[in-house]
Design a protein that fits this description.
The structure is a single chain. This protein is α+β, with helices and mostly antiparallel strands. 18% of the residues lie in helices and 39% in strands. The chain has helices at residues 84-88, 102-121, 148-160, 172-177; strands at 3-4, 14-23, 26-29, 31-32, 46-49, 55-65, 71-79, 95-100, 126-131, 136-141, 165-171, 195-201, 206-209, 224-233, 236-243. The strands form four sheets. A six-stranded antiparallel β-barrel has the order 2-3-7-6-5-8. Strands 9-10-15-14 form a four-stranded antiparallel beta sheet, with helices on one face. A three-stranded antiparallel beta sheet has the order 11-12-13. Strand 9 and strand 10 form a beta hairpin. Helix 2 packs across helix 3 (148-160). The chain starts with a strand and ends with a strand. The relative contact order is 0.17.
């Protein structure tokens, strides 16, 4: 099991950790600030710094899986290609410092929080999601047309209103009693620990289970615009977000 420090504090940029294992899937640490691909959000990149200052570049972060493809609870830090010599010198038990690419992570946090604002403006179920450092998209299960300029103006208002963004949790039973909190048709909140992580934006803007990383206040999102609205199918409308030029 890897301790997921990013769940409680998305602003942590680095941490000291111990290598637990090194394998084909990547390097598993006992604790990490690197977010693994999941919930539509891309995995973090960055570096692992050895005790003597050498840096192993991490290209991606994924959840470790067993032979049957089931998550093991570990988080794999995937080295960029061409670092075989340094990688061969690492071993389980060594101490390293994990440091994320903060500029890229902050873009992911801004976009992810912006998608919650979009869920407020378009109160339909989501059946697809992708959050990268360059753009974010949500696929809504709906047939009605959408206005790009109107949605861009709506997001701008919510950003400027400086709504706080809070991380909390509810119990499995509380979620069962309020199934409408789940707004995604494609991603279900993880169960098994007894509590489910939630994100609340403002008092009444958005509240739903979510495991991703977010900014602490909507004002921190900055300029975000709707770059495209597509009709992906008879019942799907895709909205693509980008940063304002």
């Amino acid at each position: 099991m890897t301790q997921e420090l990013f769940r409680e504090d998305a602003y942590l940029r680095e941490c000291q950790a111990t290598i637990e294992s090194i394998g084909e899937q990547g390097i598993v640490l006992d604790r990490t600030v690197f977010y693994p691909l999941g919930g539509g959000q891309a995995g973090d990149s960055g570096v692992l710094v050895t005790g003597d200052g050498r840096e192993l570049r991490i290209a991606d972060t994924r959840k470790a899986k067993d032979a049957e493809g089931r998550p093991t609870g570990g988080i794999c830090h995937v080295p960029a290609a061409g670092q075989e010599e340094l990688l061969a010198q690492l071993a389980a038990g060594m101490t390293v410092t994990g440091r994320i690419d903060w500029e890229r992570r902050h873009k992911l946090m801004r976009f992810h929080t912006a998608t919650h604002l979009l869920c407020h403006l378009v109160p339909q179920l989501v059946n697809g999601c992708s959050i990268t450092a360059d753009y974010a998209r949500l696929d809504f299960n709906m047939t009605e047309p959408l206005d790009k300029d109107e949605l861009t103006a709506g997001i701008a208002r919510l950003v400027q209103a400086a709504h706080p963004v809070q991380v909390s949790s509810i119990t499995d039973d509380e979620l069962d009693a309020n199934p409408a909190l789940v707004k995604s048709m494609s991603v279900q909140p993880p169960r098994g620990t007894g509590r489910i992580r939630t994100i609340r934006v403002g008092d009444e803007i958005d509240f739903q289970p979510c495991g991703g990383t977010h900014v602490a206040n909507t004002q921190e999102i900055g300029g975000v615009v709707i770059t495209k609205i597509e009709k992906k199918s008879a019942t799907t409308r895709r909205i693509v977000l980008g940063f304002a030029p």
